[in-house]
Design a protein that fits this description.
Blueprint (H helix, E strand, L loop, with lengths): L1 E12 L2 E12 L3 E5 L6 H8 L7 E6 L2 E2 L4 H5 L2 E4 L11 H9 L6 H15 L12 H13 L5 E5 L7 H16 L3 E6 L2 H7 L2 E6 L2 E7 H6 L2 E8 L13 E7 L2 E7 L2 H8 L4 E7 L3 H7 L8
Parallel strand pairs: 3-8, 3-9, 6-7, 7-8
Antiparallel strand pairs: 1-2, 1-4, 4-5, 9-10, 11-13, 11-14, 12-13
């Protein structure tokens, strides 16, 4: 059985596009990445899956159950972390987590133990009021809230905002543990590097439409990198005329380009230059869409 399955899932807000004909399958037990720039339709898809908004057309199921007809039943098995978390400011973190946990058919003792375990792992002071917590610590409350009942499906929408690097790594380790125990994870992000660390497959969404579903291994093998370099003397643009180079910009001694291909080819080309500085970085998703997933229909 698939954990998530959508068929031509479409949502319009009046005349404004949300998502259009989204077909997506997440297999039970996998960590599935869902990436795209802000405004691409990631949150709309997730909110529709959770029954928080109704689709204009199409359908979606979670563990074979229709998300509209059997929403309350489904939500007993789903943990959700939204991109922005809003809580009752005067409540202590522990009281809020106990309150939210009471909605699930789980042992009170087991959930209390689980909350304490997660709080220790993420270094969260449960006695503090929500209003006294930083943005990052409020996000930790959201993580604990989403995982306290040990859901079969974990849906994360831009989950790492506000988390420092050490806590991010703890969080990634925690997700791997939950996956090892059998949980399916839908990880939505606009940060490609996060998805690469965790996911088995990834769906790329742009302008409300899924334009590609790839194995992460394939994505990495064909990944595009942004090269920025400075040469001792002004270079000839022809020196960068090798297969895989695009978006080339030469301004005096500064050069920038995107490269997709075998890394040995580009390093051999660079070895012929007298370099003063070199930076290789991951391009943003818009650059990947433009230069890696560009299709004849203009997407």
């Amino acid at each position: 059985m698939n954990a998530i399955e959508t068929t031509k899932l479409t949502k319009y807000y009046g005349k404004s596009r949300g998502i259009v004909d989204v077909d997506m399958t997440v297999m039970e037990g996998e960590i599935f990445g869902f990436i795209g720039p802000n405004g691409a339709g990631k949150s709309t898809t997730i909110r529709t899956l959770l029954g928080l908004i109704y689709p204009t057309s199409g359908s979606a199921t979670i563990f074979g159950k229709d998300v509209i007809k059997r929403g309350p039943e489904i939500r007993q098995e789903v943990g959700y972390l939204p991109s922005e978390v809003f809580y009752y400011d005067d409540m202590r973190a522990i009281d809020l987590l106990r309150y939210s946990a009471s909605f699930y058919n789980r042992s009170t003792k087991a959930i209390e133990k689980r909350i304490r375990y997660l709080a220790d792992l993420l270094d969260l002071d449960l006695k503090k009021k929500i209003d006294d917590l930083s943005y990052g610590n409020k996000k930790k409350v959201g993580i604990i809230q989403g995982l306290a009942h040990e859901p079969k499906l974990i849906i994360l929408d831009e989950p790492t905002g506000g988390l420092d690097p050490l806590i991010q790594q703890q969080f990634f380790n925690l997700l791997k543990e939950e996956n090892d125990k059998g949980a399916t994870i839908l990880f939505s992000s606009h940060i490609l590097g996060e998805v690469q660390k965790l996911c088995d497959r990834v769906a790329i969404i742009k302008e409300g439409t899924i334009i590609e579903v790839e194995q992460i291994k394939t994505l990495l093998e064909n990944s595009t990198k942004r090269f920025k370099l400075e040469t001792v003397s002004a270079p000839d643009a022809a020196a960068f005329d090798i297969g895989g180079v695009s978006d080339l910009a030469v301004a005096g001694h500064a050069v920038s380009f995107l490269y997709r291909g075998h890394i040995n080819d580009v390093t051999q080309m660079l070895a012929k230059l007298d370099l003063a500085d070199l930076l290789v970085e991951e391009p943003d998703l818009e650059e990947i869409f433009m230069h890696y997933y560009q299709k004849g229909d203009g997407r």
